[in-house]
Amino acid sequence: MKYSQLSAMVTLIAVFVVPVSGLAQLHKIQTDKLEFRRHEINWGLNYSGANERESWKTDDAKYYEEISTNSVNLFLENRYWNFSENRQQQFFVSAKAGPLWGNGNWNDSSYIEEIDAEHRLTGLRAAISADYSLRYYYNNRNYTLLQVNAAAQYDWYNQTSEGTIADSNLVVSDYMNDSKGDRLRTEINARAGWGLGRLTAVNHFMTAEYLLTKYYSEQDFSQDEIMLLAEEIARLKNSRDPRISHQPEIEIKQLEDFLNQKMIQIPKRIMVADWESGEFSPRYNGSRVEFGPFFQYYNREPDFVYGGYLMLENARYCNMKWNRNFSAAINYNAYKHNDWVLGEIRLGWSYFQQLQSQWDLGLKYIPGLEIGDEKAFFYQGVVPYFSWFTQLNSKNRIDMSLAWRITSDEKLMLPGPEISVSVYRSKY
């Protein structure tokens, strides 16, 4: 019944959502040469909650654990984007630490005994991560990719467990235990690839269209005129350095002079609040297809996975307020037990409220094929997601995301909610 309900849901989505996405009036713009550069340092408070699991298996024993975790962390992160005509480069590094709590269940079995228990834990969690990617363009459309991600997480906790224990003679008795423990988890992901196409960051184009619409509403501007102002906005914002405080009044004066002298517009005073808004993560327009090998290493099961991937991404700047985002990917994962073929199809919409807030809503469909020695098993899942980002002022931000994993089998992914809420300050 659960499997048929999930299949019916996916069918309705395919029949209704996908055709609706084609009704949008696409806003055709040529922005391939529009550069985007930003370096920002963020610090603040984050709450996150998700379902996690851990398992391992040997010839003599096996262990499985599921737990719903919550953590509140102080975090510091450094984010850098550099999108130019011949490269698209990103580098993120972050560190966080704070209290951890959760509850779940675990099972530990061997030839000697089997323990099945529910548990609660409280403790501390610290984590660091780094993410680097480079797409180098040989010409306007062809590129090579290098991407490396690394992360480490350390948990120190007190654990209270209650359940049952059965010995080798199948004698069952109560099990209670209070213990202290720690856990270090590390991972490295790397991929190389080749691609065709380009996703261009159109944040400055959006800002230019917004300013012209607000301050010169009596005029209709062509795409070329909007692009002309977008290039000037890019020149001003791309030269910022978070180590040196920028002066918005000076930048606004240069922009007003440009409108008056280069675009022959009547001088109008641009509000500082409008100029200091619009600091979103890259908003994309365009398409690209890429493929290549990858590998993943974990210091737990599955310890080493390698394979290849093929991915299509398409983003459309529909108008100043709306973006449509679509992606489809398939990858083959080779593993020492069973191989997997995994896919992901994502369709989402982004709504931009003036230059202050961004709302994202979408759905992921995730099919998976487990390839055994004699036969294969098919699983599928869907993940509706929602996120909201707002700029309270030039320095303070709120970022919230919520996703809910729904699956036909837990082998594909662990069902349940995943939430993150961050309140932070930003220097850029």
Question: How would you describe the overall organization of this protein?
Answer:
This protein has a 14-stranded antiparallel barrel. It has helices at residues 2-21, 203-215, 223-238, 248-261, 272-276, and strands at 36-57, 61-83, 87-110, 113-137, 142-167, 172-201, 284-298, 304-317, 322-334, 339-353, 357-371, 376-391, 396-407, 416-427. It folds into 2 domains: 2-202 and 283-420, Porin; 205-276. It contains 5 helices and 14 strands. Strand 9 and strand 10 (339-353) form a beta hairpin. With 428 residues, the protein is of the alpha+beta class. The longest helix is centred in the N-terminal third of the chain and has 20 residues, at 2-21. The chain is elongated, with a radius of gyration of 25 Å.
Helix content: 10-25%
Give helix and strand order, one letter per element, not per position. HEEEEEEHHHHEEEEEEEE
Total of DSSP H or I helical runs spanning 4+ residues? 5
**Major beta-sheet overview:** 14 strands, antiparallel, barrel
What gross morphology would you assign? Answer: elongated
Number-wise, the strands total 14
The CATH topology of the largest domain is Porin
CATH C-level class of the largest domain: Mainly Beta
Proportion of residues in β-strands: over 45%
Total domain units: 2
